[in-house]
């Protein structure tokens, strides 16, 4: 069996310029909006997500302060 050397050249999205990646992402967003498959946040969903993030932040902060003592 012949082993190939691992070339460290970037492939796929990593090889593209940031502008080109942005163009591709934008096309995907426009397509999902046009098809009606894009996620639309309701006020209740957004509120729940914010509370969940705040709670996790508070727990991590509390854990960090206890270990420093």
Mean model confidence by pLDDT: 85
Q: How many strand units?
A: 0
| Helix percentage range | 55-70%
Task: Please describe the biggest sheet, giving its number of strands, its sense, and whether it closes into a barrel.
Answer: none
Number of helices: 2
Give the topology string: H per helix, E per strand: HH
**Could you give the distance between the termini?**
57 Å
| Rg over C-alpha atoms, rounded to the nearest angstrom | 22 Å
Strand coverage percent: under 5%
Number of domains: 1
Structural class: mainly alpha
| Unreliable stretches covering 5 or more consecutive residues | none
Overall morphology: flat
Describe, in plain words, how this protein is organized in 3D.
The chain is mainly α and 69 residues long. It has one domain (12-68). The chain is 64% helix and 0% strand. The protein has helices at 18-35, 43-68. The radius of gyration is 22 Å and the shape is flat. The termini are far apart. The relative contact order is 0.06. The mean pLDDT is 85.
